[in-house]
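Comment on this:
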Amino acid sequence: MPHLWRNRAVVTVEELIPDWWPTYDAFKHYVRYYKDKDYGIKRLQRACRHRRSLYAFDSLPEKIQAALGDPRKGSQGASEHSN
C-alpha cells in the first residue's frame, strides 16, 4: 500500500512485483532505463541496512497509480509512515 514518506507518496518494490512486473530483474531494468530521463519511475531511497528502496508514486504509470490508490486522498495517508 502506498504511503507518505517525507511529504511524498511512495511505494516499495514488494508492492509492484509480481502484480505489475514479473520479476525483480525486469523491474530493476525498467528503473535503470529511466534513471537519467525526466520521465519514468524514480527511486527516492536506495535499499541499505534495513531500509527498503522507495519509489515515487507519482512517477508510476497512471494505471498502476489508479490500482494502488493515492495515499494523499482519503484518511489512510495521513497516519502512515513519515520518517
Observations:
- The chain has one domain: 3-79.
